[in-house]
Amino acid sequence: MGVTTIFAIAMGFLESSVVVYLRAFLYPDGFTFPLAPMPDLLAITELFRESATIIMLIGIGYLAGKNKITRFAWFLYSFAIWDLFYYVFLKIFLHWPASFLTWDILFLIPLYWVGPVIAPVIVSVTMVASAITMILMDNRKPMVKIRWMEWVLLITGSFILILSFTWDYSSFILEHYSLSNLGTVPSKELINLALKFIPRHFNWFLFILAESLILAGIAKFIFRNSTKIKIR
Length: 232
Description:
Elements: H1 2-26, H2 40-64, H3 68-94, E1 103-107, E2 113-116, H4 118-140, H5 148-174, H6 187-194, H7 204-231
Antiparallel strand pairs: 1-2
Helix pairs in contact: 1-3, 2-3, 3-4, 4-7, 5-7
C-alpha cells in the first residue's frame, strides 16, 4: 500500500503543479468563473492530459492488484488519494480553495463537470473506504467477487454521481438549445456559450442519492462476504 500511496500523492502533486501553471497563465488575478478561453492547442492538450491521467491510474491499479477485484480496488484507491492530495497541494501553493463550498471545474470530458470542492472530497473518501474494504476482504477470503446486484448499485450510483456533477452545465446549455438540435450547433458557437457559464446550483439530491446507492452496494458486499467468512 505504501508504494501505491506515494505514487498517487506524487500524481496529486503533478496535477496541482499543472493547474498552478495554467492559472498563472489564464487567471493571473485568481481563478474564477466563467472559464477563460484557451488557445486551441492548449485545450486539446488539456483533454489528452486528463485522459492520460485516467490511463495512468488504471495502470497503477492493474500493477498493484493481483486479480480483478483488487485491481479495481487499487484503481479506486489511487484515484481518490490523487484527488485528495491535488486539493491539499493547491491549498499549499495557491491558498485555494477558500472553503469546501468553493466551486471547481472537475473534468472537461465529455463536458464540464462542476461542483463545490466538498463534493469530490466526499467521493474520494468513499472511494478510499470502498477500496480498503475490498482489499481487506480479498486478503481474508481470496477471490471474493462483486455480485451482479452489487454491481448494479455501484454502476447506477456512479452514473447518477456523474449526472450530479454535469447537471448544472447541461441545464445551462439546454436553456439555449434544445436536445434535438444540439448536434447541429457549430462547435465554435457551443464553445463561446460555454465560456459564459457560471455555476449556479449543485444538485445535492442527485449527489446524495448516488452516494447512498454506492454505499448500499458496498454494504451489501461487506455483509455477504463477512457472513460467508464466519460460517466457514
